[in-house]
Amino acid sequence: MAAEFPDDFKCPISLELMSDPVILPSGHTFDRSSIQRWLDAGHRTCPITKLPLPDHPYLIPNHALRRLISNYAHISKLHLHDPSHHHQPPPETLISTLTSRSSTPNSKLDSLSRLAKLTKFDPSLRRQLAESGALSAVLNCLATAADSPPFQEKALSLLLNLSLDDDNKVGLVAEGAIGRVVGVLRAGSSPDCRAIGCTVLTSLAVVEVNKATIGAYPDAIRSLVNLLDCGRGREVKEAATALYAVCSFPDNRRRAVECGAVPILARLVGGGAGLERAVEVLSSLVKCREGRVEMGRVFGFVGVLVKVISFGGEKGIQCALFTLNALCSCSEEVCDEAQRQGVMEICVGLMEDENEKIRRNASSLVQTLSGSH
Description:
Elements: E1 21-23, E2 29-31, H1 32-40, E3 60-61, H2 63-76, H3 91-99, H4 105-118, H5 123-131, H6 134-143, H7 149-162, H8 166-174, H9 177-187, H10 191-204, H11 208-216, H12 220-230, H13 234-246, H14 250-258, H15 261-270, H16 276-285, H17 289-297, H18 301-311, H19 314-330, H20 332-340, H21 343-350, H22 356-370
Antiparallel strand pairs: 1-2, 1-3
Helix pairs in contact: 3-4, 4-7, 6-7, 7-10, 9-10, 9-12, 10-13, 12-13, 13-16, 14-17, 15-16, 16-19, 18-19, 19-20, 19-22, 21-22
């Protein structure tokens, strides 16, 4: 019989154990996939308090709760989310099926599905998979699953779980994970697969050396930019998140600009796509000269930033202020345009904001505009 886990470990929406808990601006925690579906459906109230949320609510990872859930699961030695775990094959058998050349596609799909569930909360099993040489087998499954969305999605889900551990992140890249994932971004069998592929890159990019490797890989950044341009819903959000992660490495900012990211990001922000992460990416790209030059070429770019500063969420306002300040520091013309659009007055008001970063960025922009003449 499956053990009963504390209610605080369960998502208030799905009532299932959370694998990726995130905090809403309301202060309540939900599983990322559940609350994202709630938001994607157009809801802008907290499911618990019913109080209004920002137009583009920021989801903050609840790392402390995630560790508690993982430790609880490890201590209890239970296979989560599977009440019939005592009837299923042991992990060693599932790994053997995955690595064996004689296994049928159906048996491999079953093993991928089971292992994807088990590895969500079991760090020891993730280590066991890595030490058994199964990483290459998972990547091979990904390569042969192009025509099967369920197969590809399970392989990607398992790959994502394995990438949660820092020791595995470098190992996966050494095994060729980037090439496999980029292949999914370019020609994935479904939008969900492409979205998970972006999330895998985000996870791999936590390790600094991987950011450089991802950026240098042919078509990696271009594929993310293409998804920003042509993707839908979750694909776009995950592509923006991955791009933000890899662009914390300076050389990748220039690469993203060269791939045409700036006008696409400006369109997403200015067109009301509700993608706060797009403003965050712009705040990274503005740190390179090529990014600032390209932003200066986008018609109405200052107006896009002013719109975010006036009506965006906290993170969006903070990043838009930073981006505009960087542009104003390098261009008298941008300063004049910002003055014409009333930025000085807006910033004076924001200098009283409760958010310390917003206050600081608004103050810096006021100083820049005050010294521009």
